[in-house]
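hey so i finally got around to running the thing on that chain from the lab meeting. sorry it took forever, my laptop kept dying and i had to restart like 3 times. anyway pasting the input first so we r on the same page abt which one it is
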Amino acid sequence: MNEAEYKAFYDRVGLSNGWDFSKLKVLTEGARADIYEEVKRACRPSDLLLDIGTGGGEAVLDIRDAALLLVGIDRSSGMIRTAQANLAQVGAANVRFVQMDAERLDFPERFFDIVTCRHAGFNASQVARVLSPDGVFITQQVAEGDKLNLKQAFGRGQSYEETDGTLLRKYELALAEAGFMDIQSMEFDTEEYYRTPEDLIFLLKHTPIIPSFGHEKEDFEVLRAFMEDNRTEKGIRTNAKRFTIKARLAHEPGGIRI
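ok and heres what got predicted. didnt touch it at all, straight out
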């Protein structure tokens, strides 16, 4: 997908589903990346938290008791409308959702104690500008090796031709250049087993894992063969590869290190 196609896709998903995949029946084996568990441990009751690429706001609403104020932003109007609807159902007075581009954060300098970003792009310099001197940035991203057997079956996919680890290194360097230090990263490669074909099809239709899935007439035949080749007693096998980065701002010039 090019940028315009991805934005249109993201808006459609935002209006129809948000970023909520909680109803999928999927078994996971191995350590899973979950930055919001780390966020709950790091948060103080007086903290202000910014969540970049908040989607339908599901994760922020789940941790709403962890901080004094939580602000979720997303560039997609569809996602924000879904987030507002989710907020109305929960009724959390300390949560706000705003449409905003991560490339230009419209907040005062040093305003937030914690900034998070899951499966979305971010601008390291912008994060550094709005983060307090003692604040922490935590991000979780999809690695190039995610859903590898699916991408190999289709011969295309999200970051399919990129070397695994490219995005991790790019973000580590960007954070260092923006003045962050104590940059800690971890990689996770989890086995996933989707219980039914419908679960896997829902995932493919609501994510860009296989760009334009279903638009090619061969797609469902490829998927049928993939499911036959990867069917196990536990479900249809694939993988979820993620990485996390946790970083703090350097207190003094020249204190940058990885």
